[in-house]
Amino acid sequence: MDNEGIAEFAAAGAPVSSGNSEAELIYVGFWRRVGAYALDLVILVPYALVARQLIYTSRTAYLVNLILGTIIALVFEVYLVKRFGGSPGKIIMRIRIAKLIGTPVGYKEASLRYSVLLVISILSSVGLLMSLFGMSDLEYATFTSARAHIRALEAGAPAWYQPLQIAGAVWVYSEFLVLLTNKKRRALHDFMAGTVVIRIAAVKTGEMA
Asked: Could you write out the DSSP letters of every residue in 6-52?
């Protein structure tokens, strides 16, 4: 998308009009949201490939990767949501996150939407770091594959690490279930933050998407 398209995306946050209602917004369904998420993953592939190679070099490199990963997630899920209404994938798919009446979200809404996954991610990272720094540099250097690396870190993580992973999976599946069972296609994080995901062309001209 060119600069003009991005500007249009950012400017699309104004209410449709004072006489229109929420019902005139075009709500985005499951597959378009999945498509936007898939595009975000594609965009992050170069970083992921580099990080995958570097994390094996030292425990410090693994720590730096965790910090950078958290920063990138906050940029995608909070800053870009507040600034443009969504991540690069959403910009490409021409959808945006908005308040219930179609107005732009602020940092409060963007932060609330991401809060549960952020807490789970941070706690998971803490658990893995506790395992990581319980190893020696020599022991860490023996890992030659991603699978062996992850298994060793998870094996040394505290007892609450695995229940936390289960809780995270339950949260994600619950998000999908809730999204598929309401007319506005709101996931749990949308209910928490008072948000919806809508098309850039916010006025409905036909069937709701």
From this structure: HHHHHHTTS-S-TT--GGGS-B--HHHHHHHHHHHHHHHHHHHHHHH
Q: How many CA atoms lie within 13 A of 49 on its CB side?
A: 6
Evaluate whether 27 touches 184 at the Cβ level (below 8 Å). yes
pLDDT above 70 as % of the chain: 85
Residue 176 CA to residue 130 CA, distance in Å, equals 32
The alpha carbons of the chain give a radius of gyration, in whole angstroms, of 20
Assign 186 to helix, strand or coil: coil
Please report which residue ranges of 24-180 form alpha helices under DSSP H.
30-54, 59-74, 80-84, 88-93, 107-132, 137-140, 146-155, 161-180
Residue 206: pLDDT band by 50, 70, 90 thresholds?
A: very low
Q: Which of 55, 169, 153 is nearest to 117 (CA)?
A: 169
Measured in Å, how far apart are the chain's first and last C-alpha atoms? Answer: 22
What's the CA gap between 77 and 74, in Å, rounded? 5
The residue behind tokens 């908005």 is 98
- Quote the pTM value: 0.81
Closest C-alpha to 173, from 192, 187, 190: 187
Q: Which residue has the tokens 């940029």?
A: 75
Reported as a single tens digit per residue, the pLDDT across 138-165 is: 888 787 777 788 888 999 999 999 999 9
